[in-house]
Structures are given as structure tokens and as C-alpha cells.
Amino acid sequence: LGSRQVPGLTSDDSLIATEVNIRDSNCKEAIENKGEFGVQYDAQVTKIYTIADARKEGSNAGLFTESSRMAIFGVGPYSGGQPVSFSIWFKTVVTDKDMILMHYGDTYG
Q1: d(CA 5, CA 9)
Q2: Is 67 left (phi over 0), alpha (psi -120 to 50) or beta?
Q3: Exposed / middle / buried, residue 38 (Cβ in 10 Å: 0-12, 13-18, 19+)
Q4: Can you say whether residue 108 is alpha, beta or left, with left for phi > 0 and alpha for psi between -120 and 50 degrees?
Q5: Nearest residue to 88 via CA among 99, 78, 77
Q6: What angle do CA 74, 76, 79 make, to 5 degrees?
Q7: pTM score > 0.85 for this model?
Q8: What confidence score (pLDDT) does residue 54 get?
Q9: SS (H, E, C) the chain
Q10: Is the dihedral of CA 33, 38, 41, 45 positive or negative?
Q11: What is the dihedral of CA 66, 71, 90, 49, to 10 degrees?
Q12: Confidence at residue 47, expressed as pLDDT on a 0 to 100 scale
């Protein structure tokens, strides 16, 4: 976080965010967006651990825990009447707990 500027994302003491607060967790890392819209959709993350993905050589997966946080600041360039698609793949072996996989709410509240 801080090496690729996300348009509009700032931190308390800088115009270029070097850290952000995601649901009471301090975030200093980002996962680079590989999609069409680039840096605007980089994911700000904390406590997500990278592990080798056995399905494809050279690729990785993220290991999430209860304290993991991931957020995406970008809110465009889509507009009303245009189809929008976001893709995040999850695999879990835990089935007896409630999980929030996606939440649309206040920005970094």
C-alpha cells in the first residue's frame, strides 16, 4: 500500500494512502488488481496469508482467518444501466460458522 496510488484513497496524514483502517484493523498491504481497471481496484488487506495454489504452478491463494480484512475502495467507472461483475473465489472447509463474504456498507467504517 503506498507504492501504487489508488485514486481518491488517502490516509489520515498523507494524500497517498500508506495505511487504512478496515473494520478496526490497520492495513498496510495491498493485493494488486490484475483486471481491466487496474490500480483503482487494488484490494487493501491485512492478515491475509499467501500460500502456494496447488492447482496451478506459480499461482497463489490467500489464507483468511477471523482477523483477516479485505476491502476495495474503487467505485467506478461503471454507471447506471451497465452490467457490473466482481469475482472473488472462496473455498472453505468450515461449515458450522456464520461468515460475511461480501458486505456493501460505509467506506472503511
Answers
A1: 8
A2: alpha
A3: middle
A4: left
A5: 99
A6: 155
A7: no
A8: 66
A9: CCCCCCCCCCECCECCCCCEEECCEEECEEECCCCCCHHHHCEEEECCEEEECCCCCCCEEEECCCCCEEEECCCCCCCCCCCCCCCCCCCCCCCCCCCCCCCCCCCCC
A10: positive
A11: -60
A12: 92
Question: Mean pLDDT, the chain, as a whole number?
Answer: 75
- What distance lies between CA 51 and its chain's CA centroid? 17
- Among 38, 37, 40, 6, residue whose Cα is nearest residue 20: 6
Q: Tell me the pLDDT band of 55, cut-offs 50, 70 and 90.
A: confident
Q: In whole angstroms, what separates CA 86 from the centre of its chain? A: 12
Instruction: Determine the pLDDT at residue 108.
Output: 47
State the cell numbers at 59.
499461482
